[in-house]
Amino acid sequence: MYAVIASGGKQEKVTEGQQVALELLDGDEGSEVSLTPVLLVDGENVLAGADALSGVSVTGKIVGTTKGPKINGFTYKRRTNQRRRYGHRQNYTVVEITKISK
């Protein structure tokens, strides 16, 4: 059984026992977090839509935090000697999916 969850404006396909990196969530390490499912697939049954997913819950445990890859950016405007280099490294929360119940 797997579920598609929505977190931080993105969707992830998760199964029980899987660790997934999501956008930064509120909560301490070891605390429980509830995620909103978008789609649930259990063998031949597929549940989608708000009314079908009213009794479905996906819970996980916060394992820790991590950082994504370094992104290097560069902007310039021609003929004006305007150049700027910048870097970005996104912070993520690592969540272990403990239970998918319907």
What's the shape? elongated
Q: Which range does the strand content fall in?
A: over 45%
Distance between the termini: 11 Å
Number of helical runs? 0
Q: Helix/strand/pairing class, anyone? A: mainly beta
Q: What is the mean predicted local confidence, pLDDT?
A: 90
Pfam families: Ribosomal_L21p
Organism: Ilumatobacter fluminis
Keywords: Ribonucleoprotein, Ribosomal protein, RNA-binding, rRNA-binding
Family: Belongs to the bacterial ribosomal protein bL21 family.
Walkthrough of the structure:
This protein has 102 residues and is mostly beta strands. 0% of the residues lie in helices and 66% in strands. The chain is built from no helices and 9 strands. Strands 1, 2, 3, 4, 5, 6 and 9 form a 7-stranded antiparallel β-sheet that branches. Strands 7-8 form a two-stranded antiparallel ribbon. The model has no long low-confidence stretch (mean pLDDT 90).
